[in-house]
């Protein structure tokens, strides 16, 4: 086992950019929502840098880029509804599990470590995506960006999963691809581990000073 796991009894994983490369489906839904409004597509490379603060912020960034100005609130609400509808129709069609994810989850569970999922994605999409990869049963608890009053980088969702599993934060590890994951983990009193292959607004996640970094989650086990 990776040394960062010493005395760790709960591992909370981020979803987008950590377990799954979901940008192809996110970008398709963003572009379809923009097309409904007569706006030009933004494409995967841009969307990649906009993921991580939930779907409303994603759509706000896309609209701002498409219109070259701050989005009007009513238009943003329409665009967001469009995004949710399009994404809901195909949340995993082109989404891929990153290498090492299945082995890591299986290996940790086999060693009696509790697993949780804490994403800023709307919670309605969590189960369909995990089910598409046969991973739904792996997690004791899954929280989305709309599950509680606040989302990452606020520590509340992490403190919630630790409390629900009755494990002190000092025995918990947050694994994620973005500064929001590392900041939330640190603020919650969790140990933090970063993966460099995901989405972090175009800058290296190591700038957030995680306690550790792995190139693949397979290194955990
Ligand atoms: O911003 C999102 O919708 C997804 O973010 P996540 O990286 O927390 O899963
Ligand atoms: Mg992420």
TrEMBL record:
Catalytic residues identified in the record: 14 (nucleophile)
UniProt keyword terms in alphabetical order: Carbohydrate metabolism, Hydrolase, Magnesium, Metal-binding
Q: Which domain of life is it from?
A: Bacteria
Entry-linked Pfam families: Hydrolase
**Any one GO MF annotation of this record:** phosphoglycolate phosphatase activity
List, separated by semicolons, the cofactors it needs.
Mg(2+)
Q: Which GO terms describe its biological process?
A: carbohydrate metabolic process; DNA repair; glycolate biosynthetic process
Look up the record and report any one GO term of the cellular component aspect: cytosol
| Catalysed transformations (reactions) | 2-phosphoglycolate + H2O = glycolate + phosphate
Recorded hits in InterPro entries, A to Z, give:
HAD-like_hydrolase_sf, HAD-like_sf, HAD-SF_hydro_IA, HAD_sf, PGP-like_dom2, PGPase_prok
Carries keyword Hydrolase? yes
Q: In which pathway does it act?
A: Organic acid metabolism; glycolate biosynthesis; glycolate from 2-phosphoglycolate: step 1/1
Sequence positions that bind Mg(2+):
14, 16, 177
UniProt keyword annotation of Calcium present: no
Instruction: Report the EC code(s) recorded for this entry.
Output: 3.1.3.18
Give the protein's biological function.
Specifically catalyzes the dephosphorylation of 2-phosphoglycolate. Is involved in the dissimilation of the intracellular 2-phosphoglycolate formed during the DNA repair of 3'-phosphoglycolate ends, a major class of DNA lesions induced by oxidative stress.
- Into which family does the record put it? Belongs to the HAD-like hydrolase superfamily. CbbY/CbbZ/Gph/YieH family.
PANTHER family named in the record: PHOSPHOGLYCOLATE PHOSPHATASE
Spell out the protein name for this chain: Phosphoglycolate phosphatase
Q: What is the lineage of its organism?
A: Bacteria, Pseudomonadati, Pseudomonadota, Gammaproteobacteria, Oceanospirillales
